[in-house]
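Quick one: structure tokens for this chain, please?
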Amino acid sequence: MFKGMGGVAQSPELAKRVGFTLFMLTVYRVGVQIPTPGIDTAALASFFAKAKGTLFGLFDMFSGGALENLSIFALGIMPYISASIILQLLTVAIPHLEALKKEGDSGRKKISQYTRYATVAISVVQGIGIAIGLESMTAPDGVPVVADPGWPFRLLTSITLMSGTMFIMWLGEQITERGIGNGISMIIFAGIVARMPSAIGNTFKLVSTGDMSPILLVFMLIMMCCVIGFICFMERANRRIPIHYAKRVIGRKVYGGQTAHLPLKINTSGVIPPIFASSLIMFPATIVHFIQVPWMRYVSDVLQPGGLVYELLFIGLIVFFCYFYAAITFNPVEIAENLKKNGGYIPGIRPGRKTVELIDRILTRIILIGAVYISAICVLPSILIANFNVPFYFGGTALLIVVGVAMDTMAQLESHLITRNYEGFMKGVRLKGRKDY
């Protein structure tokens, strides 16, 4: 990895892309510090101190702390992610969207346009909801978060937050086009990683004061390395189904007769299941902050992180969403039809229904392995905090995102360096055609 990073300086085009990416991420982090007008930031910080384990905490993690400060980027990129997931789900249910998806690049551009429109709508609705919620918030000492509530404040907040989300979306598109890595993923990555220095500082402070033993710190470091290595292995793991292509004779040429593989990832659904599961479990705790209902308070207390009911429900929802998301995004029937059209077949399996059954059976088994893997990583923070008194949140959705984005970015860097090396091999070489003899 370090050798590859050293090669960045030797490639001007790649160095330019890396510099542009860092500049865009710096712009994003500066915007996180700009507060929305009309907010008492001190009272808001006091409110968020007691709002951990709610949807506010989840959204604040993805926004890199922008929601806690209620900056102009408070909504983060979550409205865009929600719009993308909604459009992806609707593609299965609406024939028009399904037809657009099959049209290729032009269809994807149209779906991307619909996603932007949906992002604006979701941002406006969430902005008004947050503004109304802020008006009812008070700090523990009774100081209201909003000094001058009313519709002027609600409209101003909604427009500000919507504009911030659209600007973040534009930043992500610019990074994807002119930088390195997927722009949206890089922005989420930057928001999560921005909190690491304070977590590291607090850990060493606990060691220096004697609240945490050095042996426990060393053990935690070793375990972190093992967990990150395990995530890297599982994110790259896949089940390869061998595919043979029959020979076809067209004129004097023979086509096909090749052997390939159909790779099925162990973690087919990525980080979508833990995000959905966390959102559902945290919903009662979020409602309690606005509606004081006794039975809702009881449900919120039962679903506290670290409890047996919370962990079992969390794991069950992760397994459910793993299968649900794979069912709407992966179609074995379509894969079997494409293989049959291209003359491909699985050795020993008849094309058609038997191929569909085999792919579906293999997919069902590997999704279970992926669900167990995601559940283990997401439950890890609760185990560490409860049993080892770890002063920071290690594991879960954030760790999956950080490791996954880092691996994808390094893969893109490597591909750029390989392209540059191939260009170097071709310098001074003249390729001859048939008429150059």
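Confidence is low (pLDDT under 50) at residues 424-429, 431-437.
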